[in-house]
Amino acid sequence: MYSDSDVEAAVAAGALSPKEAERFRAYVSETRSTPAVDEEHFRLLTGFNDIFVSIAAVILLVAVAWMGNEIPPHVDYDGPSPFGGLLVAGTAWGLAEFFTRKRRMALPSIILLLAFIGGVFATMAITGVLAVGEAAIENEERIAGLIAAGAAAIAAGAAWLHWRRFRVPITVAAGALAIVAVALGLIAYVVGDTESLQNILLGFGLLLGIGVFLLAMWWDSSDPRRETRRSDVAFWLHLLAAPLIVHPIFSLLGLTDGNATTAEALIVLLVYVAFGLTALAIDRRALLVSALAYVLWALTDLFERFGAVEMSFALTAFVIGSALLLLSAFWHTARGGVVRNLPDALQARLPTVDRVAVSPQPAS
């Protein structure tokens, strides 16, 4: 199984010429019933060996973290040690030198990247707690927010270094998440422990989610035919942006307190329809998946209010499952109808609707 990233790497290594790569992509597009641009490929597995290596790597990283946490100093005498995260980060980087840089294994690269960033964040956060003292954290939550922001800032820098070295597509999303954590931590420090803090964080989280979404669209617009690694980067950014947008919207509307009205449930459905149209336009399904839990709850609540108490969840699952399967089956047709009604300037920035097969050309 080969992805567009593999084809791109083969071109960069000289194993394929650009024309040969284009003819290969055209052939794959012709042999499938839908254009390749609508398949939304992303590289996760190159073979079962990815799973084997990933399991082994996780076991090793857990063991390293355990041993590192036995090294003093500790938070609260028997709590975590900064050496646990430090050893995890160092081990993950070392393993990435072989399994990512040389073997180019997809799933292990993702796990090692997350372990590296998480290890750096944990090291700096625990170090910050030890520096100011546990008592200061318990008595002043603003300091905790500041420590979290500082640790996240260093984690973002670590993500940048990892990207420069290994170019794993998920790294950009991990760095963006760290920057979001920095912003929210600083906001929590400035606002302090007030009753409105949660709503303020939700509001800023929504704005940051929109910012991540726009960043994802920038990566997508640079590869409208989705033939390079930039499309993989955009995929992970969309996957991050979706919950950052979806959760604050429904939370700020008061739909997570368990006391929603019929009108509020209908609002959820209307918002989900808007997400669906957006997902079709940008050819990304992450928004639909992230909002799925909310729309399941909304439909279940509606069915219960209209008397179908015992069958409410079954009816909800039937309606949503059928709708999503129909949408998947006719995704390309539905997307064409949505995109072609948009302004030309906006269409030019969206992923290509139709991929025209390129006629084979003689190699030069």
Task: Give keywords.
mainly alpha, 364 residues, 72% helix
Descriptive overview:
Residues 355-364 have low confidence and may be disordered. It contains 16 helices and no strands. The chain is 72% helix and 0% strand. The chain has a domain at 4-254. Helix 11 packs antiparallel against helix 13 and helix 13 crosses helix 14. The longest helix is centred in the first third of the chain and has 27 residues, at 106-132.
List the helices and strands and how they pair.
Layout: H1 4-13, H2 18-30, H3 48-68, H4 82-99, H5 106-132, H6 134-139, H7 141-166, H8 170-191, H9 197-221, H10 229-252, H11 262-282, H12 286-290, H13 292-305, H14 312-329, H15 331-339, H16 344-347
The number of distinct β-strands equals: 0
Whole-angstrom Rg: 23 Å
pLDDT below 50 for ≥5 consecutive residues: which ranges? 355-364
Shape: globular
Largest β sheet strand count, sense and barrel closure: none
> What is the CA–CA distance across the termini?
28 Å
**What amount of the residues lies in strands?**
under 5%
Q: Look at the helices and sheets and give the structural class.
A: mainly alpha
Tell me, rounded to a whole number, the average pLDDT.
Answer: 82
Contiguous helical run count: 16
SSE string, helices as H and strands as E: HHHHHHHHHHHHHHHH
| Helical fraction | over 70%
Oligomer: single chain
